[in-house]
Amino acid sequence: MKSPIPARLPLVLACAVSFLSISTPSYALFEFIFGKKQEKVAPMASERDSQEAAASVMLAEARMAHNAGRAGKAQNLYLEVVKQYPFTPSAAEAAFQNALIIRHSGRMDDAFEAFQNFLNDHRDSPRFTEAIEKQFEIAEEAKGGRKQRGLLLVPMKMNTSDVIDFYNQIIKNAPFGKFAPLAQFSIAEIQQDMNEKEKAVAAYQKVVENYPGTSQASEAQFRIGSISNIAAQRSEDASNLLAARDALRTYIASNPGGERKQETEMILNQVNSAEANQSLTVAKFYKRMGKTRAAAIYLNEALKYGSAEVSAEARTLLAELAAEDPDGVADARKGPGQDYTMLTAQNLKSRDDYVGPLAPELARLSQKPKMRTGDDGFMPIPLQEPTLPLRPGATAPGAGSLLPPVPETEKPALLPVPPAPMVPPVPPAPGGTAPPVPPPPASVKPAS
Question: CA 65, CA 87: separation in Å to the nearest integer?
């Protein structure tokens, strides 16, 4: 008895072919039946000129059909140029024009893919940046829920994840091109609109880190602070308040004259007020629990960031804590990283260790030096010889000397001075008179 498997083999193959024809493109079906397609081989140098000449003729015919309004015929000719002469400049232009035809047909997915195929196969084409711009336009239309059909924009609905994939592909095509920061910023906006706070902040942070100095980076910094502030108002989470303050301060520091400066300062005041109120509430709780150190730390936070009313209440509570438990308040000042606020001086005069205000000279020395802002009679400091220590037994230094004198005991010994030569005595003249002294020689004048 023969096995029934060979008889069923044609039916199995027919089912497989039918399934592949429905679920996969035609080239996949071709590969499944006949094997993998052959890779394209670049022509030899001697063949390039002839191929380019033939491709140019076919490209000109396709453009004529395109200009005449016969888009179907033009598209077939463009695809034929790409197929027969893939390594010619005419093939790059044909691929770009084919993508434009699909773009105007309204099929956004197909148009984006057609431009992507052009970018993959013709990265050295002068149309490269223009193709990325077209992809960005498609992604922006998909993000806004509309698509282009001819000269009109009609409503559409597209999956958000597919739109984000569009932007990610644009960034991948040209990570440092002019459309990369725009695409990354759009991704963050989509996630912000979807109320995905963590993803939106992370996406905006990529804009700040990867594209500093751009207008998108400064706006992204502001958005990070704004999102964190909204999250803090909803959840009263201290981490969100801290993130909001850091982001807003960074925006002000990096954009001192930015358009969002006033709005940023207003939000920053809201963040500081919210944190001060929270700190005051927590401090009251710890004060009731008898935990002086923790209460003092939170009261210090309320003093630094609170309004006038909150700061006054925090100052009063901190003075009460200092009166009840001075050691606990003093211990709170020793915490790492504590910028502790000084206590109020309202009860300072009643303290036992109060000795009055500082003397005028001490008060002046305690002030920080001020920078000189103009010509106010500044005179250079004269150079004076410092008073140097002397060795024992040394004499005073000489005038103009910067070195101490050498002691007598360390002076070098003097050499003996030879005696003057002996001069024979002159005998006295007869008669007891001194011999005449000869006159000095007259000066000799030079001959004229």
Answer: 23
